[in-house]
Amino acid sequence: MNLLETARHRVNASHLAQFQGKPICILGTVVQIDNSGKSFKMKSSDNQVITVIMEEPLGELLQGVIEVEGVVHNPKAVVCKRYFMFPQEAAEEFDINLHNEAVKLVNQYQNFYQCVTD
User: Fold this and answer.
1) How much is the pTM?
2) Any idea of the CA torsion for 10, 16, 18, 22, to the nearest 10 degrees?
3) Is 23 helix (H, G, I), strand (E, B) or coil?
4) Are 69 and 8 in contact (CB under 8 A)?
5) Per the CB 3.0–4.6 Å rule, which of 3, 41, 59, 117 could disulfide with 32?
6) Residue 94's Cα: distance from chain center in Å?
7) Sequence ranges of the domains in the chain
8) The predicted structure's pLDDT at residue 1
9) How many Cβ atoms sit within 10 Å of the Cβ of residue 79?
10) Alpha-helix residue ranges (DSSP H) falling in the chain
11) What is the C-alpha separation between 87 and 110, in angstroms, rounded?
């Protein structure tokens, strides 16, 4: 089974250390794109900046709210398997703070919100 067929834990940057080497889903806003297009900086929903490492250079300009699915490389970096950029209208209405609260609850009460990855 490949990564895209498995469940992913929803996390914010403060949870990355707990999921090193595991598939995750993290949401945030684009801060800076590397000139090579091979990585970008993203501010996660808990206001921490992480690096997103691309497997292939970006083919489009990223901006606004983005959801990244990938594997935790280290406590401050994720290797991106795929991403979804929110349309501008949706990004403007999206409550990233409420999303962060939901992520914290899911991770605080993992027994109630289990994520099967096997």
Assistant:
1) 0.85
2) 70
3) strand
4) yes
5) 41
6) 15
7) 3-99
8) 46
9) 17
10) 88-93, 96-108
11) 30
pLDDT value for 14: 95
pLDDT at 104 over 80: yes
Of residues 102, 97, 103, 16, the one with CA closest to residue 53: 16
Joined together, the tokens standing for residue 81 give 């398997």
CATH class of the domain comprising 3-99:
mainly beta
Residue 61's contacts (CB-CB under 8 Å, 6 or more residues apart) are 33
Higher pLDDT, 91 or 54: 54
Beta bridge partners of 84: 67
pLDDT at 111: 62
Length of the chain: 118
Query: If you average pLDDT over residues 7-35, what whole number do you get?
Result: 93
CA of 116: how far to CAs of 54, 93, 113, in Å?
Answer: 25, 31, 10
CB 49 within 8 A of CB 14: no
State how far the Cα of 118 lies from the Cα of 100, in Å rounded to an integer: 26
